What does this fold into?
Amino acid sequence: MQHILSMDIAILGDRLIKGCHYSIDIHQFRVKAFAGKESPTTSGIHQDGQDWIFMHFIQGHNIAPVISEVHATADEAPPLLHTAMEQFLETLAINDRQLYHRASNVGQISPTITAFRDLLLVTFRQRPEQQES
It folds into this structure.
């Protein structure tokens, strides 16, 4: 976990504003599908209200490819990036203030086996300045 976080910080480098404090949120995101039904991964093309989002693929089980997209706008225009994340720690880094993203639904390959997709999300959000006393 420390290695992943230190790599994310290194990737951002000078994009993190010196002297500013950031809140960093780290959480696992699992989407399951069962009984032959698909499960949505996102609610359409959106932003999450963060400064930066790192989406690290951890694993998938019994899933058809889930397509991650990056968009310049919230419109249905062709995406800037259209990819299936399938390798351990394959990562998308998103400037959430400038870009939008979405992912396709999680669907089962075999309808008798539960499917799941795990991502580790690391988000950076600039904290409002707090006065020191």
User: Anything to note?
Assistant: The first helix runs from residue 2 to 12. Residues 24 and 124 are 5 Å apart (CA to CA). The mean pLDDT is 94. Helices lie at 2-12.
